[in-house]
Amino acid sequence: MAKTRLTDFTGAEIRPGKLVVYATRRGNRVRQTEATVIETMSDKRSGRVVPRLKVQPTGRDSGFSARSTLAPQYVSAEHVVVIGDAPTA
After folding, report:
1. Mean pLDDT over the full length of the chain
2. Which residue, 2, 7, 34, 88, could crosslink 60 as a Cys pair with Cβ 3.0–4.6 Å?
3. Are 16 and 77 in contact (CB under 8 A)?
4. Burial 77-88 (b: 16+ CB within 10 A, else e)
5. Higher-scoring residue by pLDDT: 72, 69
6. What one-character-per-residue DSSP string does 9-47 give?
């Protein structure tokens, strides 16, 4: 049985190397964070399969306070939207 593609709600494929935006919390507020997808995976601990992403934040966030760390994060793929290909340095 073949694996299905992991897509965002617009139908764009989520795969390593893509630039995505997702919601994060900062204190009592919510902001949008831009990140590059490093890896896609499945989390089966809750008894059902939940798509997860390992992402590397780019440092570009909404809001006026700076991000405290640029460490890789694990996020659910449920509310992620693809905005393009990650820039190559």
Report:
1. 86
2. 34
3. no
4. beebebeeebee
5. 72
6. TTSPBP-TTEEEEEEEEETTEEEEEEEEEEEEEEE-TTS
Residues 81/7, Cβ–Cβ less than 8 Å: no
DSSP 72: -
Spatial contact of 13 and 6, defined as CB atoms under 8 Å apart? yes
* Chain centre distance of CA 39: 10
SS3 assignment, position 84: strand
Q: What is the pLDDT of residues 20-39, one digit of tens each?
A: 999 988 888 888 999 999 99
The half-sphere exposure of 82 on its side-chain side, counting CA atoms within 13 A, is 18
What would the pLDDT profile of 33-61 be if each residue is shown by its tens digit? 999 999 999 888 878 888 899 999 998 88
Q: Residue 7 has what DSSP assignment?
A: B
Secondary element (H or E) of residue 50: strand 50-61
